[in-house]
Design a protein that fits this description.
The protein is mainly alpha-helical. About 65% of the residues lie in helices and about 0% in strands.
Length: about 190
């Protein structure tokens, strides 16, 4: 019985150690890739934690894939493929399940979001808006942009459906963002300063 308990404890230790080490490796990769694009790595880490909890192979019920829970639709937009071209879907799906490729596409999408947000958002409000838009998805953002010429100017963040759910998501991202800032210090590139 004692041997069984020791074996079980060892298996649990190995399991948790591999999970923690995996998160750490992905965090290092995210920090490195974010600095190349000059995007706040703490924000990227916070969104990845909220989206997938650093699980690279997770697929949502809506078809979002990988660490950043990027959809094929978003990936096609960021990579310049036609939405009608279905021949690329399987290739893009494989890319999104590769952690490095997923983060690269996620960073392209965050760059795009940041570029298209109103410049009136600064600091933590910009972080909140970026999280809201990322969570709303590409279509939610485009539909919101049709209603609001400069998303957010003079309006509450993204007047779209599922507001309570989105507010919970934003709080989760902001809380994780502050935790990563404490742990990693300020990122060299801060999207929130734009």
């Amino acid at each position: 019985m004692k041997l069984l308990n020791i074996s079980l404890a060892f298996i649990i230790f190995i399991l948790f150690h591999s999970i923690a080490t995996g998160h750490h490796n992905y965090q290092e990769m995210i920090i490195r890739q974010s600095s190349l694009k000059c995007i706040d790595s703490n924000l990227v880490l916070a969104i990845v934690e909220a989206e997938s909890n650093f699980r690279p192979k997770v697929i949502s019920p809506r078809g979002a894939l990988g660490l950043g829970q990027v959809t094929i639709l978003v990936a096609k937009e960021r990579l310049g493929y036609s939405q009608k071209d279905q021949t690329k879907n399987e290739e893009i799906r494989r890319m999104l399940l590769d952690p490095s490729q997923n983060i690269k596409i996620m960073l392209m999408h965050l760059e795009w979001i940041n570029k298209h947000l109103s410049s009136s958002f600064k600091g933590i409000e910009r972080i909140r808006m970026i999280a809201a838009v990322y969570n709303a998805g590409y279509i939610g953002f485009i539909n919101s942009k049709k209603r609001l010429p400069q998303v957010g100017e003079g309006h509450k963040p993204l007047e779209i459906d599922k507001k309570k759910e989105r507010d919970g998501y934003i709080k989760k991202v902001v809380k994780a963002y502050h935790r990563f800032v404490k742990k990693n210090k300020r990122s060299n590139c801060s999207i929130s300063e734009v």
